[in-house]
TrEMBL record:
CDD domains: GDH_like_2. It comes from the Bacteria. Keywords: NAD, Oxidoreductase, Pyruvate. InterPro entries: D-isomer_DH_NAD-bd, NAD(P)-bd_dom_sf. This is Glyoxylate/hydroxypyruvate reductase A. Residues 102-273 form the D-isomer specific 2-hydroxyacid dehydrogenase NAD-binding domain. It comes from Paraburkholderia tuberum.
Length: 308
């Protein structure tokens, strides 16, 4: 049984070591040294090779090394092949940490204090109770749910929005486009944890910002193209939005001259909110290979019709 890895080569070396320890029976190959292409049954990639169908005729499963699959051109992946995204505890832990710090940065007015510090001004602001700061997360998947479960422990009123109705303890759940306006109207800090699909592309735009309470803040940890960056700048200028924390931009890297870089009410990080943790990622992939061999359902298989 042969497994091919086609993503960051340095991480690939580490995958190779972990495979050798944990599953010596699997032959591990690191792109571009693929050996006999006909022997490859499993591929883990950030982006599959363009002529996947021709190049790897006996492939059985495609794994994404990231949590999303929006970087895949699914039209080039034969319909018969299951596509599995990365769901592993390291990604979840990283995202919970990142969004928690972002929400607390906004909640505890650290944007304002950064400006006071720059002006060497010792100035206090009234502390607002967590119970009066309403958090809303777009996306109630693996990450959105984990983030909300942590944020509710601080006492923030928490809500989430998904496509299909969900029920979660202590979290107000909204579903579908008809419920979006009501969800936004009760949200002071909006966190985007949606997958990027044709439906969600550009969703964070002027119309959506107008449905939030005046002075709300945005945290985008989904994908850059979820956000219309010009609309964000306009909403910050008008005061409709107060702060934005962006881990993702469009394009990436954000060009050095872009107005978002120097905006005093914007914080930018270079797509580092969370990353796959090698040991747990390899465990999850090996478990899925075992499942595949046993004819069991794969964990994290995407639904092509939904695009995530
Ligand atoms: P999941 O697939 O588990 O969850 C996606 C959620 O979004 C689901 O609740 C789904 O609804 C909801 N959703 C999708 N489309 C719509 C829609 N049209 N309307 C309403 N809700 C919708 O994904 P994860 O939680 O694992 O990850 C989410 C995203 O986070 C990834 O796709 C990626 O873009 C981003 N990410 C960013 C990282 C970073 O470092 N910045 C790292 C990892 C991920 P339903 O429940 O009904 O299916």
């Amino acid at each position: 049984m042969t497994f091919l890895y086609k993503a960051d080569p340095a991480r690939g070396e580490q995958w190779a070591r972990l495979f050798a320890q944990k599953a010596p029976e699997i032959e591990f190959r690191l792109w571009p040294d693929i050996g006999d292409p006909a022997s490859i049954r499993y591929l883990a990639a950030w982006q599959p090779p363009e002529d996947l169908a021709r190049m790897l005729p006996n492939l059985e499963v495609v794994f994404s090394v990231g949590a999303g699959i929006d970087q895949f051109d699914l039209s080039r992946v034969p319909q018969r092949l299951p596509v599995v995204r990365m769901i592993e505890p390291g990604i979840v832990q990283g995202m919970v940490e990142y969004v928690t710090q972002a929400v607390l940065t906004i909640h505890r007015d650290l944007f304002d204090y950064a400006q006071y510090q720059a002006a060497r001004e010792w100035r206090e602001m009234p502390v607002r109770a967590a119970a009066s700061r309403r958090i809303g997360v777009l996306g109630l998947g693996v990450l959105g749910t984990a983030v909300l479960e942590r944020l509710r422990l601080f006492g923030f009123p928490c809500a989430g929005w998904s496509r299909k109705p969900r029920t979660l303890d202590g979290i107000d759940c909204y579903a579908g486009s008809e419920a979006l306006t009501a969800f936004l109207a009760r949200t002071d800090v909006l966190v985007c944890l949606l997958p990027l699909t044709e439906v969600t592309r550009g969703l964070l735009n002027a119309k959506l910002f107008a449905a939030l309470p005046r002075g709300a803040s945005l945290v985008n940890v989904g994908r850059g193209p979820h956000l219309n960056q010009d609309d964000l700048l306009a909403a910050l200028a008008s005061g409709q939005l107060r702060n934005a924390i962006l881990d993702v931009t469009d394009p990436e890297p954000l060009p050095a001259r872009h107005a978002l870089w120097g905006h005093p009410r914007v914080r930018i990080t270079p797509h580092i909110a969370s990353a796959t943790r090698l040991d747990t990622a390899v465990d999850v992939v090996l478990d899925n290979i075992r499942r595949h061999c046993a004819g069991e359902p794969l964990l994290g298989e995407i639904d092509r019709s939904r695009g995530y």
